[in-house]
Amino acid sequence: MVASTETRGLKVFSQLIREVIKSENCTFCGACISVCPVGAITVKDGWPTLTGRCVLCQLCYYQCPKTEPTLEELEKKLFKDLESKENPLGFYKAIYTVESTDGNIKSKAANGGVVTSLLKIALEDGLVDCATVAVADRLKGWIPKAEVAFTFQEVLEAAGSKYTYCPMITALASAFYEYMRSRVAFVGTPCQVLSVRKMQLTDMGHRKLGEAAKLIMGLFCMENFNYNLISEFLPNMSVKPEAVFKFDISSGKFNVYGEGGKNLISVSVKELEKYSRRGCMVCSDLTARLADISVGGIGSKPGFSTVIVRTDIGEKIFKRALELNAIRAEEISEQGLKSLIKVAKAKLDRVSKIKEKV
């Protein structure tokens, strides 16, 4: 047992327990698990747990998206040469509404199939040599698992949103440590993207792991759900998990599709709030403001994705996709932009209201 005098003033896992885990603010991004140099942090019942001896390195604490520095402070570091946009979308170069031109991709992927199309090009052009993906077998209960994909076929097999939490940073760690890859396309939610940027930009960041993420693609996220969305909600709606082929969220509705694209469930996302992970409710970032390129359905019509291009590398992969006719794109409409800003602001306001009650 480490004496308390040894840990006084250090930001170690016990501090993370007090500040983040016990208060249920953890979003299960996988950062603390991935950076522990002695593998002392594992998972128990969906929460990070210390199962070995802490060596007081403090890495777990400083990679957590729920600790300082803040999103806004990191934005200033990442986008120091860019003019601020006075809205909750963060910094960006351009915003488009986009769809994949590949019918096979669109039939399997969420919304416009844009993330899958961009990953295909990044892999085939050699910009990256692998990508992080969330894999879930519908015949095994749709339990998501963070994995590394090396081919387009593996990316395609993993296509489609899962909507239950998955520690994607563990896949980045797997790519770097197990497969010794240092050019990874990282795909994750806003909190996961925030953690990777902390690795890259802060003094206590796990620089080697963070810099392995050469392309960071962020997914719009209002909230993530606990697994009982699958184990309880679906059966309560008389739908067996194994009968589901695809999920998506469009126009404020959570949609569940069966074989052949048959719509099995369509309910307001607001009705699913009880299945949300509490840590998501105090996250202010809807559009992954620290990503190279951000993708989601809000602001575009069904079958299309809204794409926010933020950095030079994000712009490079997007323009390459246009050159190859892998995607069709047009600037987002005025109404689409208003809708996107409205939802992003609603997420910010939700956090403010929760903090006022505390």
Give a brief outline of the structure.
The chain folds into two domains: 8-63, Alpha-Beta Plaits (2-Layer Sandwich); 71-357, no CATH class.
Which helices and strands appear, and what pairs or packs with what?
Blueprint (H helix, E strand, L loop, with lengths): L3 H4 L5 H9 L9 H5 L5 E4 L2 E4 L8 H5 L7 H8 L15 E7 L2 H6 L5 H11 L5 E6 L9 E5 L2 H6 L11 H10 L5 E5 L1 H12 L5 H5 L1 E7 L8 H9 L9 E5 L2 E5 L5 E6 L9 H4 L11 E4 L8 E5 L2 H12 L3 E5 L2 H24 L1
Parallel strand pairs: 4-6, 6-7, 7-11
Antiparallel strand pairs: 1-2, 3-12, 3-13, 4-5, 8-9, 9-10, 11-12
What does this structure look like?
With 358 residues, the chain is of the alpha+beta class. It has two domains: 8-63, Alpha-Beta Plaits (2-Layer Sandwich); 71-357, no CATH class. The protein has 15 helices and 13 strands. The strands form three sheets. It has an eight-stranded mixed beta sheet, with helices on both faces. Helix 5 packs across helix 10 (190-201) and helix 7 crosses helix 14 (312-323). It is globular.
The low-confidence runs, each spanning 5 or more residues with pLDDT under 50, are: none
Report on the biggest sheet: 8 strands, mixed
Q: Beta-sheet strand percentage? A: 15-25%
Backbone CA Rg: 20 Å
Q: Termini distance?
A: 34 Å
Structural class: alpha+beta
Average of per-residue pLDDT values:
91
Reading the helices and strands in chain order gives HHHEEHHEHHEEHHEHHEHEEEHEEHEH
Cross-sheet strand order for the largest sheet: 5-4-6-7-11-12-3-13
Domain unit count: 2
**Broad shape:** globular
| Number of strand elements | 13
Q: Name the helicity range.
A: 25-40%
Number of helices: 15
